[in-house]
Amino acid sequence: MTETVVTDTVTIFDTTLRDGEQSPGCSMTMPEKLKIAEALVELGVDVIEAGFPIASPGDFEAVRAVAQQFGDRATICGLARCRREDIERAAEALKGIAKPRIHVFLATSPIHRQFKLKMAEQEIVRAAVEHVELARSFCDNIEFSPEDAARTELPFLCEVVEKAIAAGATTVNIPDTVGYATPTHYFKVISYLKQHVSNIGQAVISTHCHNDLGLAVANSLAAVEAGARQVECTINGLGERAGNAALEEIVMAIKTRGDYYNVQTRINTPKLCGISRLVSSTTGMLVQRNKAIVGQNAFAHEAGIHQHGMLQNRSTYEIMRAEDVGFIGENMVLGKHSGRHAFRARVAELGYTLDDASLQKVFDEFIALADKKKNVYDADIIALIDKQSNVTADRWQLIQFQVGAGTGTIPTASIVLRDTSKSDESNLFREAVIGDGPIDAVFKAMERIIGVTAELKDYQVRAVSGGEDAQGDASVEIEYLGRRYHGKDVSTDIIEASARAYLKALNRALSENAAKPAT
Length: 519
Prior knowledge:
Helices cover 40% and strands 21% of the residues. The protein is α/β, with parallel strands linked by helices. It folds into 3 domains: 8-283, Aldolase class I (TIM Barrel); 328-389; 396-513, Double Stranded RNA Binding Domain, CATH 3.30.160. It has an 8-stranded parallel β-barrel with strand order 2-3-4-5-6-7-8-9, surrounded by 8 helices. The chain has a 3-stranded antiparallel beta sheet with strand order 13-14-15, covered by helices on one side. It has a 3-stranded antiparallel beta sheet with strand order 16-17-18. It is globular.
């Protein structure tokens, strides 16, 4: 086996909370952002891009909250256009923390110059210099991004980058904003900058690759090979359009092929699967089964020849160990006669730390589940923990439901919801509705009670573990007033899981829009 010689460390810049949240339906609440930020810190991420403070008051407060809670443990970054008000707003959100970074960007490609900015080359250079200098007046850690760099003429890109560094940029990010580059192309761009920018040694070269051609990870690694020492990425490759480079794939490629890249990261890799589940559960974006590193099938072997090799030596068909990324299969571990201490020990073995109150709630759910299921698997316990982690003080709660369906029968649903904003006995609302099927009837009944109409954009149910009595994981996405919201729940009854997931999505929509239900 070739000995790995590590010569440098690659900075991992996570933008799940900013670029990742731009995916339709992936907006997060403040508590959700803080939970993910905490997980990113525990993962060992170097830089967390917490948001775009000028975008909205909510974005400003989220960046501010993440900065205040975690700004002494990781560098917290706020995004800003080359505009004074953007930079001042970002600086205010990051004020007073130990490790702030302002990330300033301005498009440089011909198509952006002509159609979006309507600016000449020298106007762009002056604007970049002016606003990098302004940002530097607030903090020492400044990142500059020439947006759409992969489609920018190389001589002009060099000019902008060189003058941004001279103005005070300590990191220069080279974005493949629209996923246009190929690995060889991107390698040449980074190499050209290293050869032709006289002060390039005064800044860290960074990558930010989108996945429109499925090449985001390959391009990022090509840039590392060319000398880039920061990679911008997201958990599960989350992001607008086809997404960004996946953090877990970048990190494990560098770790697994350290003999080739000769670099390392500071990521605590056994936490990768845990944070992947957290982001998926929070955003409602399911991870495909065959997704590299964190997918359900990532360490599954079905072909006979593979299984034979695995029995002889796991390295015949596995280049990584499942435990290195925190992968957990579906091994049966506990039953309804298992005690609380055994349950607590298994939760800890699965990598979770729960306070006494949370542990008791999950344990109660586990006992209830064990009465319904013959076998309880690790995946079931994880689903219960994720469900408890996503419990919020929603206004509307499902109290009771009943459905009727069958061949030659009109599907019906009777629903009882509680309005928690009312304290008297008038807080229970009932409705019965017919629909195209039992699920449709349930959804319509809840909408009628609450007094809103949403459009169902996506609905998926999958088994959490094996067996006919497996829990169903229901995920829904709705559109309400032009924005998308998601909900997720698990139950051995898929209609119950679907109903609770849909109600969570409705609650999120109502909370954000301050909508008032009919009374």
